[in-house]
Amino acid sequence: MLVKNPTEDKIFLRYIYCYMNKIRSSRMMEIEATRNIELMWLIGKIKPDHGTLSSFMKINKNAINQLFKEFTLMLKGFGLIDGVLIAIDGTKIKASGATSYIFIG
């Protein structure tokens, strides 16, 4: 089972929302929950810190991976994806004025 109590439900919803909006860092998730009204409403204004968010992911890693596997199988069942090709772009481009690589993807 993925979550055990309502607070963990809210933390999980925060993770899903943030991943959908390309926010991966637990520190950025913590900041986002204090500035984004949409996310505040979704999680019921709870404010766990980045350590709590990080430990939640560590504890529930296998269950979350299983959830994404089941979601992928459901999409295949609906015919929305075929599952033949998965492409990830890891392009690195160094701009002439940049001090480090810029990741595109």
Describe what this molecule looks like in 3D.
A two-stranded antiparallel ribbon has the order 1-2. It contains five helices and two strands. It is mainly α.
Instruction: Sketch the topology as an H/E string, one letter per element.
Output: HHHHHEE
The end-to-end span amounts to 32 Å
Beta-strand proportion: 5-15%
Radius of gyration: 17 Å
Tally of DSSP helical segments: 5
What is the strand and helix layout of this fold?
Layout: H1 6-20, H2 26-35, H3 37-43, H4 50-59, H5 61-77, E1 91-93, E2 102-104
Antiparallel strand pairs: 1-2
Helix pairs in contact: 2-3, 2-4
Brief write-up:
The chain has 105 residues and is mainly alpha-helical. The chain has helices at residues 6-20, 26-35, 37-43, 50-59, 61-77; strands at 91-93, 102-104. Helices cover 56% and strands 6% of the residues.
What brief labels describe this structure?
105 residues; mainly alpha; two-stranded antiparallel ribbon; 5 helices; 6% strand; globular
